[in-house]
Amino acid sequence: MFPTVSHFIEYLFGIQVPLPFNTFGVFVALAFVAGYWAFSQEAKRKEALGKLQTVKKSIVTGKPASTNELILNGVFGFLIGYKLVYALLNYQLFVSDAQTVLLSLQGNFIGGLFFAGLFAYWDYKEKNANKLPKPKTVEVVQHPHELMGTLIVWAAVWGFLGAKIFDNLEHWDTFVKDPIGSLLSFSGLTFYGGLICGGAAVLYIARKNGIKPLHMLDIGGPGMMLAYSVGRIGCHMSGDGDWGIVNVHPKPFAWFPDWLWGYTYPNNVANEGERIVGCVGRFCNELPMPVYPTPIYETIVCFILFLILWRIRHQIKLPGMLFGVYLMMNGTERFFIELIRVNTKYTVAGIQFTQAELISLLLFLSGLALVINAVKNKEKLANY
């Protein structure tokens, strides 16, 4: 396993390059890049079909930098410098435990002041360079795909918060023991929490910018499936604990790779299992028994589902139907993967289930409802 990018580089080239990047975080970033690409492509397609309209906005140009802008830039610069300079001066600590460095209150005050002045000065110079004797109001045209970058940022922020909230609800005992640590930790993220909260934020911003909810949902379906597939690569490569149950069954086919059937996740970032003899460092644990590598299963299945959605999106004309199909695919995939995946189980009226199983069932039913609604109201939705 490769808990950090440095481990991956060492595996490929045999050299140790100390970098403060964890593998899971890199693939989360790549997942958002993939989602942004799919969102943008689908927004352009819908605009070309006349389903999305451009928005005219009035902006004021030629104004000098205001006091509030200078203060905000200064505060932002201070935070950057406070942490960046401290991290560079304590680079080994940053490499070994970037999370603690970033989330602690420790920092470099002088570095913060320097970057605060630098950021404020940049803003002042930039605004002054474009200052006019009399500021004027101009009208600009915003295309729907130009909004996708903003939407991705909102999805990232609220998705992370939602993923943390749902994960802590799922692991309530751990949260109660260390609430601050659980909330600030970068590990422990529940996909459905991110989907629900991030999706709600995206719909809110899209609606404010003239994009109707059903069209925004359809834009997001294929992209979210692709992003999920890419993100799961990070789960597998880092060994974040999101694996399956113990699998000691014989392989169904002789040619089937061992690592794809049962895997022990050596050097996993979750530090689960037994200590590896002779290993030195933080990530030296390996599971005592092989488990189903469910993240890689989801990577493969969800990429195939993305390709299907990407292909059929041209044939689906009714707003909301494509997203309904996405929800049904997503719910079905996750429901069945839960059967071989490690997770917290709840019991209600004698029925055992996981949080993901319950939500995946609700998502499937919601998707089915969207599809039925689209078919029932196709005449009404034709001009939506």
Automatic annotation (TrEMBL):
Q: Does the keyword Transferase apply?
A: yes
Residue ranges spanning the membrane: these are: 20-39, 70-89, 101-124, 145-166, 186-206, 295-312, 358-375
* One Pfam family hit: LGT
Q: Which domain of life is it from?
A: Bacteria
> A Gene Ontology CC term for this entry?
plasma membrane
**Do the record's keywords include Nucleotidyltransferase?**
no
Give the record's keywords alphabetically.
Answer: Cell membrane, Membrane, Transferase, Transmembrane, Transmembrane helix
Tell me which positions the record assigns to the signal sequence: none
Q: What molecular function does GO assign, one term?
A: phosphatidylglycerol-prolipoprotein diacylglyceryl transferase activity
Q: Which GO terms describe its biological process?
A: lipoprotein biosynthetic process
* Family to which this protein belongs: Belongs to the Lgt family.
Q: What is this protein called?
A: Diacylglyceryl transferase
The source organism is: Pedobacter psychroterrae
